[in-house]
Design brief:
The complex is a heterodimer of chains A (about 90) and B (about 120). Chain A contains three helices and no strands. Chain A has about 90 residues and is mostly helical. Chain A has one domain. In chain A, α1 packs antiparallel against α2 and α2 runs antiparallel to α3. Chain A is flat, with a radius of gyration of 16 Å. The termini of chain A are far apart. Chain B has one domain. Chain B is about 80% helix and about 0% strand. The chains are: A mainly alpha (about 90), B mainly alpha (about 120). Chains A and B meet through α1, α2 and α3 of A and α1, α2 and α3 of B.
């Protein structure tokens, strides 16, 4: 991947992450903030894939897979907490 | 790297950018979840496809396909759980929303939960 293309894609994803941070700071309710965090984790998967392409090393893809699965677990746990139930139900 | 990979990655990045704009512009948490899930899932899968095309070694292709499968399985489920949790938690819809079909179901679930709580306290 050419350095120019990498910079353009990387800056676009960072701009998207900035929008997520805006929602995280601004969101009027707790679920709004969680939407921001959820999307931020997805963007990080994209950034890891871009790094893997740039460096040609495949372990960045391992990080992307682990990150996707871990953010899913966090989202499920927090969604259950939002319903007003405890985690052991 | 071939131009096909550039087109795929560029399209994916554009979709993620559109999802991020939607997360800022849309009025309530349910519409925001829509943009945050659909656009971003498609965008990330496009970036992964671009990675598999751009570096066609066996490990890259296997890991990119695996990651895309995990993302397509987990992110819609997480968004659905988030929408269900915020509805049951009492987050209001946008005042111009026209239909709220989940309201009866949510009311039913809430009543059942209260009955179970009463049983437990007795």
């Amino acid at each position: 991947m050419s350095p120019v293309a990498f910079t353009v894609f990387f800056c676009a994803l960072l701009g998207a992450a900035f929008f997520c941070l805006y929602r995280l700071q601004q969101g009027p309710t707790a679920p709004d903030r969680m939407v921001g965090v959820d999307m931020l984790s997805t963007l990080l998967v994209g950034l890891c894939v871009l790094y893997a392409l740039k460096t040609g090393m495949d372990f960045y893809l391992n990080i992307a897979i682990a990150w996707a699965l871990l953010s899913f677990i966090g989202t499920i746990a927090l969604a259950k907490y939002l319903e007003g139930r405890s985690l052991d139900e | 790297m071939s131009s096909v990979a550039y087109v795929l990655i560029g399209g994916g990045v554009l979709f993620e950018l559109f999802g991020a704009i939607g997360i800022v512009r849309l009025p309530d948490v349910y519409t925001r979840l829509q943009s945050a899930t659909k656009c971003v899932t498609l965008g990330t899968c496009l970036i992964l496809a671009g990675a598999a095309v751009g570096n066609p070694s066996a490990t890259f292709i296997v890991k990119a396909v695996l990651c895309a499968v995990f993302i397509m399985l987990t992110f819609p489920v997480g968004a659905h759980a988030l929408a269900r949790g915020s509805h049951l938690g009492g987050v209001k819809l946008w005042e111009k929303s026209v239909v709220n079909a989940y309201d009866e179901v949510a009311e039913d679930i809430r009543r059942r939960g209260e009955a179970e709580a009463d049983d437990a306290s007795v």
